[in-house]
Each structure stands twice: as C-alpha cells, then as structure tokens.
Write a structure and sequence with these properties.
With about 170 residues, the protein is mainly beta. The chain has a single domain, classed as Pnp Oxidase, Chain A. It is about 0% helix and about 55% strand. Strands 3, 4, 5, 6, 7, 8, 9 and 10 form an 8-stranded antiparallel beta sheet that branches. A two-stranded antiparallel sheet has the order 1-2. The relative contact order is 0.23.
Length: about 170
C-alpha cells in the first residue's frame, strides 16, 4: 500500500511495519549460582555511565575532556507473591551479589518482549530483546513497601556494578 498523507499532513504507511508486544514478555536473571525467572516484576532499570569532566585553559577557548571510570547501577521492583522474598542465594540474585568482600557477582538480565501471532495480513513481529551482562554486582539496598489501595507488598532492590556488556 502506498504512503498517504493524513489530515495532519504526515506521510506514512497506513499500517504499521511491525508490532511490539509485552503480553508474553519475560525477565530472566542468570548468575553464578542461580538462574531464576523473575516473577511479578513491576519495574526494572539499569544505568551505566562514565564520568566526563570538562577542562578549560585559562586565556583560551580550548576545551578538553577528562575521562573518568565507568560505574553502573540497577533497580528491580516486584510484588511479593508466588515466591518468597529474596534471601541470599535463594532465587532472584546469586549469593555472591550480597558479598562486597567477594567482589560481587556476575549477573545477566535477559529481557524479551512478547509477540503477536503472525498471519497473512499481520505485519511481522518485532521481537526485540536485550541481554545485559554485568560483572561486580553488589546489592546495595533492599526495601519493602505497601500502600492501602494496593494491599500488596512490593520488594525493591538496588545494586551497583563495575562492568556492562550488551547484546
């Protein structure tokens, strides 16, 4: 089907070229001592950043950058339900992630989107997932919360790590 111009002046295909779906999405955490499918995950995030400092020379307009060391941080929030809360080495995180003196754990988060069934008229499914391999992972915070309207316990974890590889 040819591109058309809609009432707002946008030129585009009238049907999408692909479909994203989170209906069957899954999150799996793999570590040195455990691999667990993370049930009832409500949110997760991972950030990896390097410090960059601007340096200027007095009497000139030259700009220099000073590169610092990278560091990462992550969070996961889930509802305590089908499984117990995480105890060191019992499920969600490997035991090594709770031991700073041991150098932390190696963890991989694999997040994969769900899919729509294909048919002759349905566009192809964009089943894009991501695998985040982190090393030196150390749990830095554990928290629990509940609010009156939800009547459920939410478990939240924070961690730091020193290396990230994406695929």
């Amino acid at each position: 089907m040819a591109n058309g111009q809609d009432v707002f002046g946008y030129k585009r295909n009238p049907k999408p070229d692909g479909v994203f779906s989170s209906e069957d999405s899954a999150l799996t955490i793999a570590g040195t001592s455990a691999t667990a499918t993370a049930y009832l995950i409500q949110n997760w995030s991972v950030q990896y950043q390097q410090q960059v400092e601007e340096l200027y020379e007095i009497g000139s307009n030259r700009l220099y950058w000073s590169k610092g060391h990278p560091i990462g941080a992550g969070t996961i929030g889930r509802i305590v339900g089908a499984n117990k809360g995480d105890m060191p080495g019992s499920g969600l995180f490997p035991k090594e992630a709770y031991d700073l003196c041991d150098g932390g754990a190696s963890m991989t988060i694999v997040a994969q989107g769900g899919h729509c069934p294909s048919s002759g008229t349905t566009p192809f499914t964009l089943d894009k997932g991501i695998s985040l391999a982190m090393n030196g992972c150390v749990i830095t915070s554990i928290g629990y919360s509940m609010s009156v309207q939800d009547v459920r316990i939410v478990e939240a974890y924070g961690w730091r790590f020193g290396y990230l590889n994406m695929s």
